[in-house]
Write a structure and sequence with these properties.
Chain B: This is Oligosaccharyl transferase glycoprotein complex, beta subunit. The complex is a heterodimer of chains A (about 290) and B (about 475). Chain A has about 290 residues and is of the alpha+beta class. Chain A has helices at about 1-15, 120, 190-210, 220-225, 225-250, 255-285, and strands at about 25-35, 45, 55-60, 65-75, 75, 80-90, 95-100, 100, 105-110, 130-135, 145-150, 175. Chain B has three domains: about 15-280, 3-Layer(aba) Sandwich (Rossmann fold), CATH 3.40.50; about 285-415, Immunoglobulin-like; about 430-465. The chains are: A alpha+beta (about 290), B alpha+beta (about 475).
Amino acid sequence: MRFSFIPSLLVTAVGIASAASSWGFEDATLSVQGKGAGVGGGVKEKLSADAPLSQDVPFGASDTLKIILTTTEGKNAKRPHQAFLTLTEQKTGLEESYAFSVKESGKGKVELTHKDLPFQLLTSSSPLKASLVIASFGSSTPYKRHVFDLTIKLDPNVPIWVPDEPVRYGKREEIHHIFRSDPTSPPKIITLVFTAAVVAALPALFGVWLTLGANVNHLQKALGAAPVSHALFFGSIVALEGIFFMYYTRWNLFQTLPPAVAVGVVAFLSGSRALSEVQERRLAGLR
Amino acid sequence: MRWLLSFLLLALLGAVQALSSSGSRLLVVIEELEEKEKYSQFWGDLKSRGFSLSFESPKNDKLSLFKHGERAYDHLILFPPKSKGLGPNLTPQILLDFINRDGNILLTLSGNSPTPAAISSLLLELDIHLPPDRNALVVDHFNFDSNSAAEKHDVLVLPPPQDLRPGVKNFCSVGGSIAVPRAVGQVLGNESPLLVPILRAPATAYSYNPKDEAEAVEEPFAVGQQLSLVSALQARNSARFTVLGSVEMLQDQWFNAKVETAGKETTTANREFAKQLSSWTFKELGVLKVGKLQHYLTEDGKKFNTSSLSVPEQNPRIYRIKNDVAFTIELSEYVEDHLQPFLPPADDDLQLEFTMLSPFHRLALKPISTTENATVFATSFTLPDQHGIFNFRVNYKRPFMTNVDEKRQVTVRHIAHDEWPRSWEISGAWVWIGGVWVTVLGWLAFVGVWLYCEPMDRKAGVKKTQ
């Protein structure tokens, strides 16, 4: 009990009081070298444990990113149990960590190429946040800080294979599928203009007939000569139109045919009489 | 007599109270029965919620999950065995059978005892990956309890789990931090929608083998949030399987324990977390029940006929294309011991699909009213312009909720010959209808004129004969 309790108390006190027993690093260099670039080519930056680099680090498709550092506990170089470079995709919060290979002396190294990055990080539209995590067992304060931003430069000629998004249960987008849209009519005003033109043709026709001398002056004469057949004949023609009207609005074919036949017989019988009367008028020179 | 009856009723009520929606027979498989004393509060909580617990050792030959071909237990808690495996009565095949027959399993792991290969392979079947080192456990040098693990950093103190993503209910958001001692981290496969992490490790955590001599971790199994400390699988039949990375979480000593992290002392909410986790696993939470489902014509202009909600389901079998149709469905959610009206979380919707092979309409169902223990969801729409056999389908599958997949088949017929709109209703036809009337009237007038016209003079007569 004494062992575990007192030292831990002491250690927390010390940890808060001084920075002596906190993890950190020094002599850190970051280099990004392209394939074939000679010594001195590419980017080379010194990393600071206290502040992130002010500029983004570009990371091309054939480049190798390399970080060399010496991990320290307090002022002494020492090997920690955990020395990670963590890359974070800023929009989604996805992270991937790469462990440094650290020697006894605290000298650590990590190397990255595009192949080591998962596609989610490679296809990120914003720069990746790179932080260093240096920590170990015991009471020393662990270190975790954002040290630089990494901008991925993709090779436009080499497409990245992005797998299909895996199925996740959730709300799906709405569907309102229409097979055929409804038929539409032209604007009513156009229809009305043409309807008016068609309807106006009837008075125009009557007008023309009147100017040519059309009249119904023989009506009295005809009704006097053959009143029944003329009334029936003209009536049956009007009735036939009426039957057609009923067929249009209400009746079906079987309701329409019997009256049509009946009216047709009447029209035939009365028509022969009525038309003979018309013929008589013509023979009498009245037509 | 009456007092006896009321007494009986009371007793019945007591027995019915606080039960899981899928039965109360709970089997705990624990190798050393003395061990179970450490978990007395957890057992007490389970008993108070109406579970009848039986404890068995995996070494017991008579132990069987099935009896006469039926499940002998409704739920199962598996403790990490001290020996090599769980024995011949609890093979991965039998456990999968148990899940297939709607049994729920809470599988616990521990960093203190190596995970048997049988369990790793069972989990691998389910696309849950354990570290290849059998002794691996999760450490975090940032979020550990400095009271109990100042040196080893293997007791993690975590904030309560965040929402998985918008639109997913979170049953384990307890009001306090959670202590996770010596956990075995899991990595979940990305392909399955059935797998969900309940509690993830913090960003700086990693999994390592304490028996490993190496002083630095070079190739960790998994790091940060990719490690899941508690994960869940809900099978297609809605049976639940939970993997708890750290069995010690359930011990009395971690229920409401005092922990200290980064100089701040807090009390753990492990008891609440254990309650929520076991409630979810044993189907006391997140169970959906479909009540009445109705669809009907709304031609008379009335949108939803809420008046007839108490009559039984009587749905038409046939509709016509382009009919206006309303659809209502009642859904309730089981919470601990009763059904209550279900409401989907914000950012989520219950959706109705109108399908013929594939959906032609997918519409959000909106809650319009609630009954005593159900919410009535409804929508209305115009049927598509295509005849055939269609289904009204509500397919509501969400993490942590039991699956709902309801279908009602209807025939959609085409328009009969006398159901089309009449010609005068179509404005484009007016010109032609006008033409017909002009012809009719003109014909009648012509007949009259032809029969009864008196020629004014010879010339006119000549003209007419032309």
